[in-house]
Amino acid sequence: MANRIICYVCGASSSPRAMVRLFVLANEQKQEIAVRRRANLNRPPQIISDIDRICFNCNKSINSEIQDVANDPDCLRLNVLHQTDSSSCLFCNRVEDTSRFSIHCRVKIFVARNIFVPDSCRCCEVVYKWGVPDQIRRFYSIN
User: Fold this and answer.
1) Which of 13, 94, 112, 139 is close enough to 124 for a disulfide, judged by CB 3.0 to 4.6 Å?
2) CA distance 26 to 40
3) Would you kindly state where each structural domain of the chain is located, as residue ranges?
4) In terms of DSSP H, where are the helices of the chain?
5) pLDDT in tens for each of the 143 residues of the chain?
6) What does pTM read for this prediction?
């Protein structure tokens, strides 16, 4: 089998000529979309390196998404927090004494980090008393 490279996003295997380099400084938006799409396909997270490439299909799809966003003046992109287990604490994964975030805490997180926390996310009493705003320093916006 000749020199084959795996697409960073979809995992398709192809020759280097049929791939596009992902690690280019001018491609920050393309890298963000590639990371998001990789996560949506349930592929393990991986830091983008200088050897990572994407296939022509993924590249075309990502470029069209970038163009659609650029051409739509009403487009708004939100960073939405996704919690895998809705019964455990968002910060420490405790299951005991959890309650939903208050609207006040959710607004504070959105204002401080530009991250939307859905109504279903929970927090334990220990972290809540400790101070939820102190814990949101761990979260960073993609943008």
Assistant:
1) 94
2) 24
3) 5-71, 79-138
4) 28-40, 56-71, 103-113, 125-135
5) 468 889 999 888 888 888 988 877 667 888 888 888 888 888 888 888 888 899 999 999 998 888 888 887 777 666 666 666 677 777 777 777 788 877 887 888 788 777 787 887 887 777 666 555 555 555 544 43
6) 0.53
